[in-house]
Fold:
Amino acid sequence: MSSSSHRAAPERNQLPAVQKMRVQFAKRGRLRFTSHRDFQRAFERALRRADVPMAYSHGFTPHPKISFVGAAPTGAASEAEYLEISLTARRDPEQVRASLDSALPPGLDILSVSEVELEGRGSLADQLQASSWLIELPGAAVDDVRGAVDALMAADSVEVQRLTKKGTRTLDARAAVLHARVVVDEDDRPADEPALRLVIEHQTPTVRPEEILGALREVADFEPPTPPRVTRLAQGTWNPAHQHLTPPK
Structure:
C-alpha cells in the first residue's frame, strides 16, 4: 500500500501541562436549557477566543484536556457547575476567569477560577459527593408540600422509573435524599411560593430533582400546580453531623 493511502498522523509533540485550574460556572435564565454537549462546544470555543493555552490529548484526534464532572440536567439552573482544565503555560486564574466569562454568552457565567495541584491526591469527582437543590413550587399549598416531604422521609424506599436508551430503569429516590426541608418566607419568598431544599447524594446513576418530585407524587399524590423551578445551589461533601455541604477545595 502506498504512503499516499495513509492518513497523515497529527502532531504528536504536544506541549505538557504545567498548570491545572478548576472552574466554577453558573447556568442561568434561558441558558439553563443548554444541553451538556452544547455547553462543551461553547466552552471550547470560549477557550480559543480567550487565548487560553490548553494542553491537548495525544492520538489521531487530540482534544483539549477538560474534565467535565456531574453536569446538571438540561432545564435546571445551577450556581455550582464544575470542570477542570490543563494549561501548557501558566496564567493568572482571575485573568482566565474574566476572559472566559467575556467569551461566553450571558447566562453561562464563570463564577471562579482557581489553581489546583496537577497531581492531587483526590479527583474533583471524589469531592462532589452530593448536591444541594432548590425546587420552587409556585402556587402549591404549604401544608401539601410539608405533608408530601414528611411522607417521603418516613418511607424506607420509594421507587421511581427512568426511561433510558436501554429501557426502563428503577431507582430508589428515597435512598438518595440526605436532607429535605420546606422553605417558606425565606429570602423574601412570597407565602404562596413554597420551595423545597434538598441534598441529594450522587449515586450511580444520580437521582434527579424531577425524580424526587415523582417520589412525592408516589407517596402523597402531590402534583405541583405549576411547573417547578429547579436550581442547583452547591456541590460538595455532606457532613451529616453539621447538616452542611462542604464545597470542593
In short: The radius of gyration is 21 Å. The chain has a mean pLDDT of 91.
